[in-house]
Specification:
The chain is of the alpha+beta class. The chain contains five helices and seven strands; from the N terminus they run ααβββαββααββ.
Length: 173
Amino acid sequence: MPEVISSNELSAVEAAPSTPLITKAGGLGDTKEAIEKVRGSNENEEDSTFSSYQNNSLLATYVLDEKTKLNAAYNIMLQFEATEKPRRSAKEALDEASLVIPTDAVKVKEYAADENRDVVQYESKLIAERMKGFYEEDTDLGLEVPKPGTFIVILKHDDQGVFSVVIGIGDNP
């Protein structure tokens, strides 16, 4: 797995100034620079391993992809509990998630990981290109990796509704 780098290290590495968003509103696979143009400045401590936006309602973890040389978000968390509406229906949660997943995402399958987590698996050519190094790294080590472009959306819920959505590269919830 690629090395997770802190916000300080991210600012020290230059991203391409014209790297376009691959999502509608800044999310999975987008660079820190591009996300901050849409979501505002990181509200978290600079030495943290994740960045926080919009009153902790969106968290992002970035990684420097060795192939593309971009600091791209490989994990996004939508925290509805940090908003005025702390619970959502599954449809509302997926609608919110659709804003932060690649625009070319195609649903592959859905399943329940356990009684409080539902998973939707997707594939995207845009994320496969943006995160080339992520998908190739473990094969270099002889480990099994998901098909390039594979990512999952995990709906975390209780009996009152969905309170969080985790979106990550790969296929392991």
